[in-house]
Amino acid sequence: RGSLPSPQEASQSQKSPNPAKSSSRSHSLYNQPDLASIDNIRNTSTKTELELSFLPADSGPVDQHDILALPAIELYLPQGTDPDAAKSLSALYRSHCTSLVECIRYCREKTFFHLYTSFQGTLTMPVQKLFGHAAIAPWIEGCDYVLYQRMMSIISGLTLQVVPKPVLDTLRNISERLVPHIRESFQGQPQHVLSAKEAPAALFSGLIDRALRVNLTAHAAANMLS
């Protein structure tokens, strides 16, 4: 089982004094797989670095009812931040992430995309200003890594099962539309916010695509052997 590492885990693995024993490998994933020209292959700005990290063999399954362990926002707050605005942003983002996980669990595609579109409308002006601050971008990215890890723990259980076509179609649509939808929903935000939102989403979309291909291959093999 693979899992997306948190930014903290990735940085720690890079600083490890004994890299020969590390189980992580560095890869890159295209944020925009439809390249306009061959020259774009050498352009690193369209790639997201991916540090693969694997869970220990003795780790148990994720309890889907556990509360999402999002990073503490206090570690990222700029000087002079209103404590009430920080608490509000943390609570609203946690609610946002929890609702997204529920949409994946119950296959609610329309609500899933609507949550991204409507999120900024739930923020007051002080909270909106804090959300767009450059210091908060790493916190947003860290929260989204935790969010998509939880989603993948749900989706990964479907890879070798017989999955109804509507569920497969929903997952395919999410894989194809998520990054462009986030880009459109948060287009009024600074580039650092867009980057923090897009990078984890691009990795998640790629993992969904892999899971769908594994599911298709598994059933094709089963049909051939039966």
UniProtKB/TrEMBL annotation:
GO terms for molecular function: DNA-binding transcription factor activity, RNA polymerase II-specific; RNA polymerase II cis-regulatory region sequence-specific DNA binding. It comes from the Eukaryota. Residues 91-225 form the RFX1-4/6/8-like BCD domain. InterPro entries: RFX-like, RFX1-4/6/8-like_BCD. Residues 1-31 have a biased composition (Polar residues). Residues 1-41 are annotated as: Disordered. PANTHER family: RFX TRANSCRIPTION FACTOR FAMILY, TRANSCRIPTION FACTOR RFX4. This is RFX1-4/6/8-like BCD domain-containing protein.
